[in-house]
Amino acid sequence: MTIGIALSPFALDATGNAVDAAVSLSASAAAAGVSSLWFGQTFTHDAIALAGIVGRAVPELAVGTSAVPITARHPLLISGQAQTAQAATGGRFVLGLGLGAKSFAEPAFGGSFDRPITRLREFLTALRTVVHTGTVDFHGETLTAAAPLPAAVAGAHPPVPILVAAMGPQALRVTGELADGALPFLVGPEALAEHIVAPLTAAAERAGRPAPRITVLVPGVVTADLDAARAAAAAQTAFYDDIPSYARMIELSGASRAAELVVIGDEELIAARVAEYFAAGATEVVFSQTDLTTPEDQRRTWAVLGELQRSRVGRPCTQRPGAALL
């Protein structure tokens, strides 16, 4: 059971050089003691490339993407990027994928967002094949992936783990059958156990696959300025209130809007919430939105997360049966 941090792509892009900023912040995260660093994908820097660069520069950290939308992307191209990052990091890269949001995908890329679950199934089928075998010859309803040349990257081992930011029942079923785990975001601990871990594990068991990894992203910050943090949280998370899969999970978590699931308070509150997520079946807890307030608050947040990680090293696993360790 490990603890990580997700860096905001918007914060990186607001600097003089997003790559330099990512490497610098990653070194600080490693010094704080966390185990992993995760990068989101927008329309600016490439998250897979950035994870590979950071993972090579800061060997203490595992790195991953959370998450690269599959919209307007192809399994062969994603495979080449992901395998390159895996080789660059010596096997410490995790590929996190997402379906994307219709409100962004259709106006940005054109075309239709129809049949997202079929697309996800076919994308994962083709991607897993090429990542594990170095070739693929897949012809589906929404995509074709047929490699005319070898598609394996030398040094990319073990095969890149694939996680999916799945939230809805159909996406969770496909993820359990074809991916290595899930990347849920904006879900409370009880809802995580009942509506993510349970159906995902059941789908993996039916498919004869290993117990899935559950890397839950939790927005939160250690701060004394509760009002400022809550206002920032409301502004940063309002987008998710109108996405059906997130709105459903927010409601199942007992909240009326995403901002209510942001963990804001002192070190004891953060530690208690981390423990609740592990008890609910998470194999990794990754804190996002740690820059909601001030750099000092962010440093305090990373410090408590690093201390929690160090306290878990060597501790016997006490989480639910069927949940895999990283």
Structural account:
The chain is an alpha/beta fold and 326 residues long. Helix content is 47%, strand content 16%. It is built from twelve helices and twelve strands. It has an eight-stranded parallel β-barrel, surrounded by seven helices. A two-stranded antiparallel sheet has the order 6-7. Strand 8, helix 7 (169-178) and strand 9 (181-182) form a beta-alpha-beta unit. The protein is globular, with a radius of gyration of 19 Å. It starts with a strand and ends in a 14-residue tail after the last helix.
Give keywords.
alpha/beta, two-stranded antiparallel ribbon, disordered C terminus, Lucif-like_OxRdtase_MSMEG_4879, EC 1.-.-.-, Luciferase-like_dom, TIGR03564 family F420-dependent LLM class oxidoreductase, Luciferase-like_sf
How would you concisely characterize the structure shown here?
This protein is α/β, with parallel strands linked by helices and 326 residues long. Helices cover 47% and strands 16% of the residues. It has helices at 9-13, 18-32, 47-57, 75-89, 102-109, 116-133, 169-178, 189-206, 226-237, 244-252, 267-279, 295-312, and strands at residues 2-7, 36-39, 62-65, 68-69, 93-98, 137-139, 144-146, 162-164, 181-182, 213-222, 263-265, 284-288.
